[in-house]
Design a protein that fits this description.
Elements (H helix, E strand, L loop, with lengths): L7 E6 L1 H5 L18 H4 L2 H6 L1 H17 L4 H11 L3 E6 L5 H5 L4 E3 L2 E8 L6 E3 L17 E5 L9 H8 L4 E5 L20 E5 L3 H4 L5 E3 L3 H15 L12
Parallel strand pairs: 1-2, 1-7, 2-3, 7-8, 8-9
Antiparallel strand pairs: 4-5, 4-6
Helix pairs in contact: 5-9
Length: about 240
C-alpha cells in the first residue's frame, strides 16, 4: 500500500485513552487532581499566584506519565500505521503514550508534559528526559521555565493545524473524549462530508452527536477491534456489526 493511495485515518484522542494506562483525568474523584482545584494549578492566574504549587503538581503528573505504559489502543493505532495506512493523531492528552507505542504523526493540542517552555517566548522548548522544573530554572533568555502545556484560558496554538488535518480525513475516529472541551470539540465540523466518524467510549451512546457512529467500549477493546477489521481488509470502513443502532 503506497502512502499516496493509503486511506487517511484521523484519530482524535482524549483523556479516556490515557486513563486506561493509569493516568488520572482531571474529572476523576481520586488521584492527583483530587486535592488541586483546576483554577489553582491549570490556569494563568494560578501560576501567577503560586508558581511553586503549579510546578510541584506538574512534576508529580510527569512522574505518573513516565511510569505509565501504552495500552492496547495506542499499540493498535501504531500497528495500523506500520501496515501502510496514513494515521494522523490529534490528541488532547499531554503524555507521550502514542509516541512510545510507535505512532509517528502526533499533534498535541494541549502541549506536552515532558517538555518545559519559556515564560517569555513560547517558541523556546526544553525536553525533560528526567526530573522536573523548579523555581529558578530558567530559559536561555533568563526567564522562569513553566510546563509546556496549555492551561484553561490560554490559546490553543496548533488548532488551525488540527483543522487542516481533519479536513483531509477519510475516516475520523474519536476515542475517549466527551466532545465537550472547546475548541477541540469543534474539530468534527471540519471533516469532509464524505468522511465517516466513529466515537469509541464507554459512554458513546450518550456522547455521540447525530451522524457519528457509536461504539460503547473502552478504548483498549474498541480500537483494536476496529483496527483488526481495517488491517484485514486493507481499507477504512465501519463494520455495522460493531456499531450500535
Amino acid at each position: 500500500m503506497t502512502e499516496q493511495r493509503a486511506p487517511h485515518l484521523v484519530v482524535l484522542t482524549g483523556a479516556g485513552i490515557s486513563a486506561e494506562s493509569g493516568i488520572q483525568t482531571f474529572r476523576a474523584t481520586d488521584g492527583l487532581w483530587a486535592n488541586h482545584p483546576v483554577e489553582e494549578v491549570a490556569t494563568p492566574g494560578g501560576w501567577r499566584r503560586d508558581p511553586a504549587r503549579v510546578l510541584a503538581f506538574y512534576n508529580a503528573r510527569r512522574e505518573q506519565v513516565r511510569r505509565a505504559r501504552p495500552n492496547a489502543a495506542h499499540r493498535a493505532l501504531a500497528a495500523l500505521e506500520q501496515q501502510g495506512f496514513r494515521v494522523s493523531i490529534i490528541t488532547q492528552n499531554i503524555d507521550d503514550l502514542h509516541e512510545r507505542a510507535g505512532s509517528r504523526h502526533v499533534l498535541h493540542l494541549h502541549g506536552e508534559i515532558l517538555k518545559a517552555r519559556s515564560t517569555v517566548d513560547r517558541r523556546m522548548h526544553y525536553p525533560l528526559a528526567r526530573g522536573g522544573i523548579g523555581l529558578g530554572d530558567v530559559c536561555d533568555k533568563g526567564s522562569q521555565l513553566r510546563p509546556d502545556v496549555v492551561w484553561f484560558g490560554e490559546e490553543v496554538p496548533h488548532f488551525l493545524d488540527a483543522c487542516e488535518i481533519v479536513a483531509d480525513a477519510d475516516l475520523v475516529l474519536v476515542v475517549g473524549t466527551s466532545l465537550e472541551v472547546m475548541p477541540a470539540a469543534s474539530l468534527l465540523q471540519h471533516a469532509p462530508p464524505s468522511a465517516e466518524c466513529v466515537l469509541v467510549d464507554p459512554e458513546a451512546g450518550a456522547l455521540a452527536p447525530p451522524g457519528v457512529g457509536r461504539l460503547s467500549q473502552p478504548a483498549g477493546k474498541g480500537v483494536p477491534a476496529l483496527v483488526h477489521h481495517w488491517r484485514r481488509e486493507g481499507r477504512l470502513w465501519v463494520p455495522e456489526a460493531l456499531l450500535e443502532e
